[in-house]
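Last lecture ended with a question: if I hand you only a sequence, what can you say about the shape of the protein? Today we answer it with a concrete record. The protein is E3 ubiquitin-protein ligase RNF123. Below, first the input exactly as provided, then the predicted structure, then a couple of comments.
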Amino acid sequence: VIGHSNFSSIRATTCVFKGKWIYEVLISSQGLMQIGWCTLNCRFNQEEGVGDTPDSYAYDGNRVRKWNVTTTNYGKSWAAGDIVSCLIDLDEGNISFYLNGQCLGMAFSNIKMGPGVAYFPAISLSFKESVAFNFGSRPLRYPLYIEEYRPMQDPPTVDLIKAQKLLGYFKNVLSTQIDCQVKDIAVWQLHGEPTVLVTLAHIFNHFAPLMCKVYLVEDVLMKFLLSILEGGGSVEEHPLIQQILDMMWLLMEDYEVHECLKQLMMSLLRAYRFSPIIPDLGFQIHFLRLTAAVLKHEKSRKYLLNCFIVHYCYNSLTSGTFDVLRSVVFFYIKTPLRVKEAGLEELIPTTWWPSRFDKEGKVEPETKEESAEERMRRRAYERGCQRLKKRIEVVEELQVQILKLLLNNKDKGQGEASRYIFLNKFRKFLQENANHRGNLTVLCPPEYMVCFLHRLIAALRSYWDEGKGKMSSVITSEDAYIPPQLFYNGKVDYFDLQRLGGLLSHLRKTLRDDLASKANIIIDPAEIQANSMDDLDEDEDSNNSQRPFGAIAMGPALARPSWLSSPTLGRANRFLSTAAVSLMNPRRPPAPPEKVKLRSLNVEQRTEEDIEGSHGNDGLLLGRPPEEPEMLLAEKSLLEILDGIIMMYNLSVHQQLGKMVVVSDDVHEYAIALKDTEEKISRCPERRQDIMQELVKSQKVFAEKLNHLSRRLAWINATIYSKEKMLDVYWLLRVCIRTIEHADNTGSLFAFMPEFYLNVAMNSYSALKNYFSPSNCMEELPDYEQTLTRLASILAKHFADSRIIGTDIKDSLMQALASYVCYPQSLHAVECIPEEQRMAMMKNLLAPYEQRPWAQTNWILVRLWRGCGFGYRYTRLPHLLKTKPEDANLPSLQKPCPSLLLQRHMAELLNKDKEMAASFLNSVLNQLNWAFSEFIGMIQEIQQAAERPERNFVDTRQLKVCATCFDLSVSLLRVLEMTVTLVAEIFMDWSRPSAELLLRRLAQLLNQVLNRVTAERNLFDRVVNLRLPGLESVDHYPILVAVTGILVRILVDCDSHGVAKAAAVLLSDPCFQLHSIQHLLGGSEPSSDGVSQLPTEHKHFSLHAYTDYISPEEQQKVEKMLSFLTEESKQAAASTAPTSEEDLCPICYAHPISAIFRPCSHKSCKACINQHLMNNKDCFFCKATITGVDDYSKPAVP
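The predicted structure:
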């Protein structure tokens, strides 16, 4: 039952009116539900459900309450996997509930009874909550025979007794001597005692029909098979189960075997998924061993893989469908929600958590100051974690064994090998999960996918390295990669997943010549012209070509023994015709050795030959380009499994790895809270016992919560974040890196690669770095630095790759590179890539901002500079130090690690390519003008909203955009500071094109920023003082220090000639105000007499207040700059001659006319026309195309 509305209700179709009755409910999700009983008169709606009306009674384990119009506390909280038993005693008028077999006490008494009153099982549940009812169609998990409570549906007592007797007979027969060593079924049957086989045929004649009923399969057959394995040992040590399955296939009708196997596996699946977790995981191990034993039987395994209903659903356990492959439940190890019931207190008696933190809340590494008690606790906790890990590894090993059985490709005696059936089902599984990423009811749960991925990696690598042992020339799994031809030869279906170059149909059109010349592949025109029709035709063909599993190729008839001449022994006779059972596999004609016509194959159409290849057919490796070396691999099918594993990681595994980190974060938060509480207790005065009691109570709560979380974290670390799981993710990262490198070598065919390969490369590195630490250190991984450098090379090369057209993947690459340069180790990896790639990367970063998304690019440049700029050595802004960061591991909160090498490359490029330098700086100045103007406009709106008398709330989105514009302005100013520092000639060498113009534009923008930020009681001050949430980063320091850094560089650090030019341009700008410069050192606006006064009441910003951030040398430079500008401004004021209005530029009215345009002869100042011509060639006034600009000087008056 699944909730499809806000609070939906449902009742059963059967009622009871006297006696004692019970039914069970399996809790699949632990949300809001009310479970119990109701009468026919109850009317429910979206607001009122079971327990909200007079004649309905319910138990709610989510809120731990009972309901009957009113509500009171009752019972215990339930969790997913729990069994709730609902009991009603209509002799005494009582209702009670049990949770996992434990009585919760009487819930209701004196309920309404009498003529016309009958009670129905009922439930109300919220949207997407789910449960499974068992009214007695299957054995109750917790039957109450002693108290004489009966299930709503009577068990098949007669059939049960009959099945038990038949099973007893069967056991007696099995106790006779049968040769168990002979593997061939036919030989074993012929050599068996005739009396034994005849007896078994008679038993199965009655026993087989009973085994089609789920109750009997679960209560009789499954218990019997489990009892065989109770002695322990490996599955191979119990051949009896294989013999029993042989006899079932021999002596039962096919439909009976099919139904019996289906019910058996469904029962095992339910039992494994919902069995309680005990310290040794005994229940899970028991059910997995039987599953492995059943799947070890070849014919049973192939039937389960090939013929079951293939529609996967998370709730398939309740719908009666089963598919071995898609029921990844078998490969999941659930996390216990109740630590005590799971026995973790016994396994991990001593708990531990970090207790040392720095100012920013980060865990400090263990030091020599660790006390002996802390050391003992930590080591005891680690020993407990190791005990838990070893027990979990037993379960994981069994799960890998099951997958290895499903991946067996040697069992071709009775048709297609298991692996190729698995591959087809696996691809469908991936397709359903890829096509329904937003539909949680269809998707495989991500926590299941994580476990499935790790088991599949273990099984895959085992088979891969087995092939290496047989053929020394085969590459090892450690060096595995996906050859690029899989992405375009049509052998593997990638559904509608995006390729790097766009849609597959588009790529086949545009790159058909490259496919023909490089890969000898010719695109079938039908593939391009009518993809949809081809799909329909192929689906129809595949349906027509499907063959029943039971299709057989009959071999020569075996001689019939005289003791089997009775016509009544049809079941015994059937074993003779099964000696040569095999599946018919249609073979495709071998591909022509020349050019191959490409046509995509549906999953159902592929055969083993299409995958593995044969003489003259490369299978999955068809279409190898000349740049790609020949890949030596024993089994090509492993490549497709590996490709599917990478796709799985992209679909949901990475997101789940990020979600599970929450437990570690909770431990961190509670540990900090406990430490703070203990410090408060130590400071609390003795006279305040009331406060002391509250603090001690809080300390106890935090300690109990930490005890629970630390044990739960141990489980999660063992199942998800262990060293072995980390190595799996690292292996995937390296596989993706090698795959991308090989695909990149194919040139234009690189565009066929699916985007998810790049995503997995970036995300797996992020997971290794952020999710697996601190329990496992990434630096200890083999060849860690080399892998880091290779990934850096990929990011540097492809973030601006023209072959990649998807905006999302481009943004992801840019963000990954931006994060990469924030950390010393990864930045060093970028510096270690070949110089040619480094120069190409920097050239792409310096491309004009107008032609592409530029914010991330600019941020990368800022990170390369951070630590070298004026007052730019901080990790967090000074005014934010007292606040705790939301996430101290964010890239933006890492310590500065500038790259002098990449700065040098930037200087070389800007010096060498003058045109690129001018274009780059012009775009930076344009974006700075836009970002700061937007910021000022937004803070005006925010200020107006704050001043209104009515209560107003500023939109949080608007606040976020405002803060973003401010951060962009600061980062753009820092890029300008870096450019001025590294290549001052761009502004100071006026022989370069646009140098003078760039300097004038720079001065203009600096003056505008200073005037807006430093004006007395201005808009910026008022908004900063509001301290609105979302505007935390907006403050005087970051933007004023960035501007100061630029001014100091052009007015102090340059040579005398350059300083003179810069001062002249700055002072000539009409927006220049000396008091804005004075404001940097705490000066105020001039008073009425023109003398600058020190602040009295209002506290001004001053660089002198930031001695921890600004060195004395930097302060001296600012003082020197202020003195210089003060003197220069006095001289400029004394020497400036008044200019008539007629001689001023008609565009800016700030500079005299100094240029005349050709051919229209209109005039302006040089600064205006040069800036205009950078983006437009038309005249300001007449729109004529300007062909040239000449100097203009006003003729002398005679």
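Comments.
1. DSSP finds 39 helices and 17 strands in the chain.
2. The radius of gyration is 39 Å.
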